[in-house]
Amino acid sequence: xxxxxxxxTNLKNDYTIAMRNFLSFFIVLLSFFSVLLFSCAGMAASPxxxxxxxxxxxxxxxxxxxxxxxxxxxxxxxxxxxxQYNLGRIAYERQHFTEAAELFEEILKRDxxxxxxxxxxxxxRIKTGDIDKSQKHxxxxxxxxxESSDDGYNHALVLFAMERYEESEEQLNKxxxxxxxxxxxxLLLARSQGKQxxxxxxxxxxxxxxxxxxxxxxxxxxxxxxxxxLYARAIEEYRKSLSDAPENADNPKKNEIRFALAKTLLTxxxxxxxxxxxxxxxxxxxxxxxxxxEEIIDGxxxxxxxxxxxxxxxxxxxxxxLAEQERKxxxxxxxxxxxxxxxxxxxxxxxxxxxxxxxx
Length: 360
Known about the structure:
The chain has helices spanning 2-40, 47-59, 63-73, 77-93, 97-110, 115-128, 131-144, 149-161, 165-172, 176-181, 183-195, 200-211, 215-227, 231-244, 254-268, 274-284, 290-298, 304-359. By secondary structure, it is an all-alpha fold. α3 packs antiparallel against α4 (77-93) and α7 runs antiparallel to α8.
């Protein structure tokens, strides 16, 4: 029964797509003949006709043709904004994000309060890495429609990326009802509070992780627990994060999670060797930041045995760094020597050719 329902659903979807494509193609033909008739009669086609043809091509995924007709429609004031906006969409679909953002922002020069253009420009500026511009656009959207929780979330996300964590939290707290049902807002609130080392983050992370699972969120949660000296819970969460993290995990990497776990164990279980053993495991997994391990030693809170073990780990890392640097230096010397040999051989060949031509 379920299979039959899936087949019927797929057939309906295929039929819908086919009909949409047929209608778009029909609009292209109809509009094209309208333009042709106007031309034969010595009359100019309307900007609306150009726009309809452009959008029909857009719906068919024929962006080059759509761009041509929308560019014509853009010349008229009454179809400028819509044409320019869809030219921006085409650039975005092609992943030409800078071009897309500039097209959206051209609309804003004429109409600074155009909500569609502001939203599109704000989102696209995230793609170009222009976080400041994105923040300004989202800020303007919320001045115009402050009740929009979706735009509020996007604005908070941009503020978080700018490391303006307190403002990000303030923005989210303007939408208390939306936060209750939006798990992305809930997590961003916890993360914003966590970056400020606020104790409230503990409860918000805990609630989110009760319904969701993400090793990065759990790692951040463990960090807040550790900061607030809740070491047993922090150790538990670091271990869960490490267990859930894939082998190719990044930001944090698995060896970074192991380092954080080791640091917490060394603090919570001062006389135990578990932290030192975990630190060696982090290094075996690729952790290389000797300076941060030295900070733990210099903190003076380790047992003598653990201090000696960590010092040995640091010394081994330093020796490995020196060996790696020597290898790179040797490779560079060999490269320069090869280039010098090639240059000398080229000069010798040039001189021999010159002498040969002189003798002849």
